[in-house]
Amino acid sequence: MNTFPDSRRRSLCAAGLALTLLSPITTSVAVAEEGADDALTNRYDPLFGEARATVGADTTSTAPTFDDTTTDQLDDAPAPENTTFTLGEGAPQSARIDATTGAVTYTATHDDAGKVISVPVTVTYSDTSTDEGAVYFVVADPHGGTAKKYTVNYTTTHSHAGEKAVSEAPTFDDTTTEAVETLPAPEGARFKLSRKARNAEIDAATGVVTFTAPESDANTTVNIPVVVFYPDESHAHADAPFEVFHHDHGHDGEEPEPGNPAPNPFGSSGGSGTAILGAGALVAFVAGIMHFFRTHPLTIPGLSLPW
Questions:
Q1: The predicted structure's pLDDT at residue 38
Q2: What angle do CA 292, 297, 300 make, to 5 degrees?
């Protein structure tokens, strides 16, 4: 009996069974490799913006947006669902982050003035894939920029104790030139009084200072401290000087000359002028009597008169 055909059939069946068993494994591997390419970190690009910060103040950035790389346009979409955010390695101690939105809050120090501070952020997607990025804080220099370019000058204002005095608007000198200018305030400048100012008010738009000096400030120069704020978040300090005089004094501080009082009749008390006038009248009276007797001699028996 020839068994060759049966043996061949059994070999073919075994090969077919082996292929059938191996087929799902091959498909599964292909899916796994395709799934690796579909990780959310490969699909999305987080976009972190900049934030302008000032020294000593909390500044919060906007939440990052996400671009879907499978489309042709640049998207401005919110974070994919179930995405979380944490600060990255090396983040500044004063930085903190909202784990849900990705908004970063940072408090700049004096050492940060004029610098750009980078705060690293780690994005974790729902499939546990991650992205790295950074939020940049541009820290304004409070004494740089416009404040460094200009010098603020107030002229001295003469005032009297108890009376309201108004200064002229300040002028500005551009320190980048050799000439000393009297320029108007740079556009957007705003004026405030320092906390140390007293008995004074200021026009926020023009810088004109109004000051009412108490009597205790008489014969002194009072400097009203002013702070000028510029649009670039820099600021400068200046003094508005007020020279204060007594209410009834001139600008030289001398007593005014007293007026001459009306003369009093003969010898009335009240002043040296009236006393001299009274003495003169008495001499004139005596002289008149003597003249009378010279012109009208009298004869008295037994008495010899000098005239």
A1: 82
A2: 130
Q: Where are the domains of the chain?
A: 40-139, 145-245
DSSP designation for 278: H
Sign, CA dihedral 211-215-218-221, equals negative
Phi then psi dihedrals of residue 85, to 5 deg: -130, 140
Q: How many residues can be counted in the chain?
A: 307
Output 128-131 pairs: Cβ under 8 A, ≥24 positions apart. Answer: 129/39, 129/40, 129/41, 129/42, 130/41, 131/41, 131/44, 131/45, 131/46
Which tokens is 218 given?
């008489």
Residue entry with tokens 């070999």: 11
Residue whose entry in the numeric block shows the structure tokens 């906390």: 195
> Tokens standing for 121?
């952020």
DSSP 8-state class, residue 206 = T
Q: Quick one: tokens of 261?
A: 């009082």
Homologous superfamily of 145-245 in CATH?
Cadherins (2.60.40.60)
C-alpha 159: how far from chain center: 28
pTM of model > 0.85: no
CA 132 from centre of chain: 36
Cα 228 from Cα 189, distance rounded (Å): 7
- Please spell the DSSP secondary structure of 122-139, one letter per residue: EEE-TTS-EEEEEEEEEE
Question: Consecutive sets of 10 residues in the chain, 307 residues long: mean pLDDT of each?
Answer: 48 45 37 61 93 93 94 91 96 96 95 94 96 95 92 97 97 95 96 93 98 95 96 93 82 49 45 50 64 58 53
CATH 2.170.270.10 fits domain 40-139: no
Do domains 40-139 and 145-245 share one topology? The answer is yes
Tokens representing 279? 């003495």
